[in-house]
Write a structure and sequence with these properties.
It contains 9 helices and 3 strands; from the N terminus they run E-E-E-H-H-H-H-H-H-H-H-H. The chain is mainly alpha-helical. The protein has one domain. Helix 4 runs antiparallel to helix 6.
Length: about 200
């Protein structure tokens, strides 16, 4: 049965299946005091949802994407600083994925969405800010976290796919940085040899 995740006006997430809602959307239970997640889908859901950071994610998602604060900040604050600021506000998503759910694939998938959102926001001439209205990376990351914690197979497959893409990007990026650093060292050596030649 395919499941869908939607956020109601109060910020709570509900799961919908083929026969309607199969959850009451409540994220708080004072009796739940289990350990954090072990990185596997569908494990220790109450503990993750009870964390303060998770509740902050719900609030941030509501303001940044549902009230369009993300594209507004990107448009108002020039020079890409607005997009950089909104990316910093997305760091708690990485914290929940890495430290609460403790899942490397989920963490990489969240990073993938944040990088894409930052890249889109940096497109000049306000085009990126307009595209940010439709991208909604906060909602995407919240959907991934909720679905992964709930053990939704479709979400887990999406997480794994994005995780592979992010891992490949990180490897390629590190290789580029390595060669650029090597080139910089060689250029510095060539410059020193040239100066020594002129002095001599």
């Amino acid at each position: 049965m395919e499941k869908h995740y939607n956020q109601n006006e109060s910020g709570a997430w509900r799961r919908y299946g083929a026969h309607g809602a199969d959850g009451d959307g409540r994220q708080e239970d004072a009796g739940c005091r289990t350990a954090d997640g072990d990185g596997k889908p569908g494990r220790n859901k109450p503990a993750v949802e009870q964390s303060r950071t998770y509740k902050f994610l719900r609030m941030a998602t509501k303001w940044m994407d549902r009230y369009y604060l993300d594209p507004i900040l990107g448009f108002v604050i020039p020079g890409g600083m607005g997009d950089f600021l909104t990316s910093l506000l997305a760091l708690p998503f990485i914290y929940v994925a890495a430290c609460k759910v403790r899942s490397l694939p989920l963490t990489l998938a969240v990073v993938f969405n944040i990088i894409c959102d930052l890249a889109i926001g940096l497109i000049p001439f306000c085009i990126g800010d307009m595209l940010d209205v439709f991208n909604r990376s906060y909602l995407q990351n919240m959907r991934l976290i909720v679905g992964f914690v709930d053990g939704d197979k479709k979400i887990v497959a999406e997480v794994n796919g994005k995780a592979v893409g992010t891992a490949v990007f990180i490897v390629v990026f590190c290789v580029i940085i390595y060669y650029l650093a090597s080139l910089a060292v060689k250029a510095a050596g060539w410059g020193a040899d040239f100066v020594s030649y002129l002095v001599a």
